[in-house]
Amino acid sequence: MTWEMIFTLLVIIAMMIALVKEVARPDLIVFVALTSFLVVGILTPAEALAGFSNEGMLTVALLFIVAGAIQKTGLVENAITTLLGKTKSERHALFNMLIPVTGASAFLNNTPIVVTLTPIVRKWCTENNISPSKFLMPLSYASILGGVITLMGTSTNLVVHGLMLERGMEGYSMFELAKVGLPISILGIAYLVTIGYNLLPNYSSSKTNINEKSKEYLTEMIVEENYPYLDNPLVNKTVDEAGLRHLDGVYLIAIIRNQEKIYPVKHTTKLNANDRLIFTGLISKIAILQERKGLSLKTGTNITLDKLKNGNGQLIEVVVSHQSALLHQRIKHTQFRGKYDSGVVAVHRNNEQIDSKIGDIMLKPGDTLLLLAGDDFIERSSQTNDFYVVTLLNDHPLINKMDRKKAWFSCGTLVLMIFLVTIGIVSMVTAMCLTVVTFLLSKTITVNEAKGYVQIHVLLLIACAFGIGEALFQTGTAEWIANQLLAFSMPLGKFTILILLYLLTVLFTEVITNSAAVVLLFPVAIEIAQRLGEDPLPFVILITIGASASFLSPIGYQTNLIVYGPGGYKFTDYMKAGFPLSCIVMVSTILTLTLAY
């Protein structure tokens, strides 16, 4: 082995460890790894930065805008709501949901679909006395299955398409993946409404849990009007001056003054006599509050989370995203109140309330935050990708009222572009450019909305991953890995080689991300095909499917992460329901590829 190969392997191993341990955002970790190859001279600047101009990566950026425009019309959520209302049984309702979700995910980014449908499905389940945990994981899985039917189904497909074009290959046609994707989607849906439905947990909704447990982490204190012997030292003091901003284990989330409810509480808010202060956090730390001169504990309080909302204010549940700028920061350092017009009531991780000071909690992807939000929260949060707004706990979910004219215009435009790509008149990237321009000129979306739909962190991750994949090619590391796999599996036959390559792809997807996994394994798949003297296309399709088929954990795929908290799932629930589905997809994929190619 050369020093370049050794260095490349060490960097990739270090990168994967950092990704598993979540030491920083995934895009930053991959960017640091790419920079190391640039610094030591393994890659030239042109090679390292080639991913930023790759056709697949640019198409992904445009697809974000197209999916956002379709989502804005409200067509998908209205269709699902209608279908759920026309059901005779739970399984029938589940089937009615899975079919359109799978179909929509074949042509749209599945992340916004799941974000939009999660509160709708959960509300419907609650109203019909059905456990949301029976529906939300299948919602995610169906969106994943639909994504492997067409070229534009997921960013992973487009990334591989771009890699193929760079290597002088033909690239995927619009429905190339359907030969494999359609059979696994049919088998997957059949599994989810039969055996899978029985394996899914039957948890009560998180709204019920929150209402039941609200008094466990809410405390009410009174600013005394007649403090013994002298005036109350807290009256007319700001929250900061009163020493109520950085407490040990408790967090001031609201002030009730007469009939007015003040939240989020700013550090400049002044205290009045008889103010009722609502704290959240560790009740074991209540003694700290009782020691404050001028405060008295109100026993037998009737305050619950539902009673704290005021005007347009809401109790809102959000999930911290993989792309969040809040990752690996303590809540007290994020300027949460000022930035989002909301205060954090509670943080749940793995369906458990975290027993530590809210301000000191280091946020991770998938954390569920219960927020007491002001009037401006929705507008402010919509301008970031920091988290997914998954439900309003008090009122109807945040769904758009369907604009029928824009809905059918948007869908008609998309169908026309898909047709033009399918018959070969335009390329995928050209079609997406035309679609976005059409949406902008017709005022279906605004320029600011288009910018908001683009997930910069995802694009940075993909672009950097291209450079790392190039390093694997340039140094011969990909060839070395391929040789090791072949040496181990060749005596067992080509079928075993396919199984090992698929399992390796799934492992990478669960450990890092789907797009990064497929970029890293693309050169390995090409080298294996060349060593065997085979057409590389089936090997590339294999890793494309394997990279998207993430069913075993909530962290491997964004849609799994979105439903993790709202469904009240445990980490092991994904393994229990997802493992049989993974086996079905793997066997079906390998058999179909063997027969077709």
Describe the structure.
The structure is a single chain. The chain is an alpha+beta fold and 597 residues long. Among the domains are: 59-205 and 404-456, no CATH class; 208-308, Alpha-Beta Plaits, CATH 3.30.70.1450; 315-392, Alpha-Beta Plaits, CATH 3.30.70. Helix content is 54%, strand content 9%. Strands 3-2-4-1-5 form a five-stranded antiparallel sheet. The chain has a five-stranded antiparallel sheet with strand order 8-7-9-6-10. α4 crosses α18 (447-453). The longest helix is centred in the C-terminal third of the chain and has 26 residues, at 571-596. The radius of gyration is 26 Å and the shape is globular. It starts with a helix and ends with a helix. Residues 211-216 and 393-400 have low confidence and may be disordered.
